[in-house]
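Onboarding guide, step 5: your first structure request.
Type a short instruction followed by the sequence, for example:

Predict the 3D structure of this protein.
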Amino acid sequence: GRPAARPSRVSAGAVARICRNALLFGCVWGAVPLLFFDAAPVGGKVLIACLCAGMIGGAAFVYATVPSAAIAMIAPVAAGSIITLAQSGGAEGKWSVVLVLGYCFTLIRGALLHTLDVMRRFAAHAEIETLARRDILTDLDNRAAFRGAVTDALLRQEKSGEPLALLLIDIDDLRRVNDARGDRKSTRLNSSHVAL
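The system replies with structure tokens like these:
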């Protein structure tokens, strides 16, 4: 069979690009209420408010596994919305600011909790993969780990063209050692040969 797939990793540069693009997109949407809200008719104001709320919610959903990107997009949209609502005055504007702040806090908290959950899953997956590739008695790599290591070595050799050697050692009559001296002796014998 094929070796188990390992969890993918994302480079710091990719995360930085995601955050930069999220911030730029957030700034564009944050400018919408600042530029158009006051001059818009009532229906237009409702549309702008709904679009901004949707963009804040969408950012929390899309960037849920990269909370810094979620915050980078949510912050300018929320800031533009809050400034516009605060300038509109009245009790409705103040309550709307409170609602937007609560909405943003809830979504950012959700993105952070989701990220923690994903990190726990990756850690559990890595632990399960490690356990599946180790022998419990000897704490040595098992046959699945050996096959994966050989496959990786063959792929590296194929790419590099460098020579490759493989040494296999078979301990004859290990079952007799096991029967005569017990499991611990044969396990220690097995481990000492692998350590060579």
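Each response can be followed by summary notes, for example: Residues 140 and 195 are 9 Å apart (CA to CA).
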